[in-house]
Amino acid sequence: MISPIEYKAKKLYILDQTLLPSEERYIELKCKEDVWEAIHSLRVRGAPAIGVAAAFGFLVSLRAELKTLSFSVSVLEYLNLSKKIGDYLISSRPTAVNLEWAIKRMQRRQETEFEGIERDYRLCIVALSELETALTEEAQAIMDEDIASCKAMGEYGLSLLDKNMGILTHCNAGTIATAMYGTCLAPLYLGHERGYDFKVFADETRPLLQGARLTAWELDKAGIDVTLICDNMASIVMKNGWIDAVVVGCDRLAANGDGANKIGTSGVAILAKEYGIPFYMFVPTSTIDLETETGEDIQIELRNGDEIYKMWYEKDMAPKGIKTYNPSFDVTRAEYITAIVTEKGIVRPPYKENLIRLMRK
Ligand code: MRU
Q1: Is 361 exposed, middle or buried (0-12, 13-18, 19+ CB in 10 A)?
Q2: 133-141: which pairs have CB atoms within 8 A and are 24 or more residues apart?
Q3: Of ligand 1's atoms, which has the minimum distance to the CA of residue 47?
Q4: If you measure from the C-alpha of residue 213 to the centroid of ligand 1, how many angstroms do you get, rounded to a whole number?
């Protein structure tokens, strides 16, 4: 199973997802600018994968900055530098909560390493190397926990699906959107291993085509039956009776159960309700943000309009100077979500109470 992130011999590599499906190439991210650009331009993407890349990215960025300072810093200078790098990396994309969550977790680990040490104490090379070991452990833990969480979501998700079901998915919440296995595609991999015969329909997911370039690619590679459709064909495949369940990922789930995911997800959920098809959102607890009350409070990333009419075409597919609106995500209201699948279990309405209970587990 492919993992989009590798950390080997103190070097961070990511699978450049902008090159898929024609080329499978890992690139090294060496400094904070590399990490920012890779997240911003979706070379690494998908909420959990962004979190893992940000954790290791924070580590390599700190190391690169310290090198330029010849490693000579006090605790206070170190913490200021860490804040600057953290804020910069967080600014690369606003919607997926995993980005901020991972950076904050790395910074908390630092704080515990500095407990009881004066802020003007100058860090020697040994202290810095111990700190680096601690941060490497933390980033690795974030990655390992994500893998375990995807496996658990796979089992819970599979308990909701039958052997020969038709499944519709939107965007890509597969192995390359996480550390490994995926969130909503994890049950499909697991079922495939156990002899299930799913028929998957992948929405192409305009404008960045995560469904066509990534989901169709990874499911096909794994030998899972997948049919690519344009986004506006979801209704007809549902009407034809070919879809028994919809599975999608999530970038930020608010406390009331509203979930932001790739643009177009809310439309699919509304259609699924109309056709009486269950709609399952797969959400690791690292993507649950109880601080955000409702979907209305989630910041939706706006991206460059070129992605709509230029990026994938030989010629511009719209008149020059046309106005564009390119929100990268939308919010599916809780009432359209049949169940939320997490690594700690399946949550059903009422979400507000049940999510609090889940997060206390
Ligand atoms: O813009 P992207 O490709 O990062 O958007 C990804 C999604 O919307 C995914 O569905 C979500 O992050 C969940 S990934 C397990």
Answers
A1: exposed
A2: 134/109, 134/110, 135/58, 135/59, 135/62, 135/106, 135/109, 135/110, 136/7, 136/59, 138/55, 138/105, 138/106, 138/109, 139/7, 139/52, 139/55, 139/56, 139/58, 139/59, 139/106, 140/7
A3: 12
A4: 13
The answer, yes or no, to whether any atom of ligand 1 lies below 6 A from the CB of 48, is yes
The overall pTM is greater than 0.70:
yes
Q: How far is the CA of 145 from the centre of ligand 1 (A)?
A: 18
What DSSP assignment string belongs to 167-180? EEE-S--SGGGSSS
Question: Which ligand 1 atom is nearest residue 50's CA?
Answer: 4
pLDDT (tens digit per residue) in 154-166: 999 999 999 999 9
- The dihedral built from the CA positions of residue 107, 108, 111 and 113, taken in this order, carries a sign that is negative
Q: Percent of the chain, pLDDT > 70?
A: 100
Predicted pLDDT at 71 = 67
Q: How far is the CA of 198 from the centre of ligand 1 (A)?
A: 22
Q: What confidence tens digit (pLDDT) does each residue in 246-262 have?
A: 999 999 999 999 999 99
pLDDT digits (tens, 9 = 90+) for 196-221: 999 999 999 999 999 999 999 999 99
Other C-beta atoms lying within 10 Å of the C-beta of residue 244? 17
Beta bridge partners of 259: 253, 332
Q: Which amino acid is at 276?
A: G
User: What is the C-alpha end-to-end distance of the chain, expressed in Å?
Assistant: 30
52 lines ligand 1 (CB under 6 A): no
The set of catalytic residues is 251
Q: Average pLDDT in the 312-332 region? A: 96
Q: State in Å: Cα 268 to ligand 1 middle.
A: 15
Q: Residue 46 CA: which ligand 1 atom is closest?
A: 12
Ligand 1 binding pocket includes 249 (Cβ within 6 Å): yes
- Residues 212 and 204: their CA atoms lie apart, in Å, by 4
Helix (H, G, I), strand (E, B) or coil at 74: strand
Any ligand 1 atom below 6 A from CB of 265: no
Judge if the beta carbon of residue 57 lies within 6 A of ligand 1: no
